[in-house]
Amino acid sequence: MRWLNTLLTFILVFTVGSIAFTLLRKVGEEGRQGRGKVKFQLPKADIVLSKVRFVDTRGGRRDWVVESHRAQLFKEKNRAVFEGVHITFFGEDGRETHLFSNRGELNTQTRAMEALGDVRGRSSDGLQFFTSSLHYDADRREITTDAPVRILGSGYETQGVGMVVDMRKETVRLLDQVRSRGAQ
């Protein structure tokens, strides 16, 4: 069933992308012929879309949703690049973790993701975290980073370098240089 959802998603994306490509190509030709003032260069991506939403399911349940202002798909590289990213991860108990970043990358085959630039997140129980980059391993359901991390909870702040979030066990582990302080 998961492969069917993935197939349908890519068929939809391909169809919309083909229409967008045709329209943008037409605008580019008119600009070169002097009929318009539009200057346009075709992107290197196979498909470029605005305001996209990707949904991944596991065992009939949503695993994550990626929403983005802009997406570029590179079919041969099995890669999607996002700008203005909001990722929602769904726990098995229905809890949600929201992640925001400037950019993101998705391996469309393995479902591994990277979040890059001003990465911030919050869990449904109020835990907030801030870092510069994160990696999501879909098979292990783990979020990791080697970068400095700041975590804010109810009445405390913890900082460290490197983090592992186990989405199955719902645990957070800071790896090095851990410092914590209570509310003042």
Provide a brief overview of the structure.
This protein is 17% helix and 58% strand. The chain is built from 1 helix and 9 strands; from the N terminus they run αβββββββββ.
Structure description:
The chain is an alpha+beta fold. It has one helix and nine strands. Strand 5 and strand 6 (128-137) form a beta hairpin. Residues 10-18 and 34-43 have low confidence and may be disordered.
CATH superfamily, called what? Lipopolysaccharide (LPS) transport protein A like domain
How large a portion of the residues is in β-strands, by DSSP E? over 45%
CATH topology: lipopolysaccharide transport protein A fold
Order of neighbouring strands in the sheet with most strands: 1-2-3-4-5-6-7-8-9
Unreliable segments of 5+ consecutive residues: 10-18, 34-43
Order of helices and strands: HEEEEEEEEE
Major sheet characteristics:
9 strands, antiparallel
Structural category: alpha+beta
CATH class: Mainly Beta
- Rg to the nearest angstrom? 20 Å
How many strands in all? 9
What is this structure's SSE topology?
Layout lengths: L1 H31 L14 E12 L2 E14 L4 E12 L5 E12 L5 E11 L4 E10 L4 E12 L2 E11 L4 E12 L2
Antiparallel strand pairs: 1-2, 2-3, 3-4, 4-5, 5-6, 6-7, 7-8, 8-9
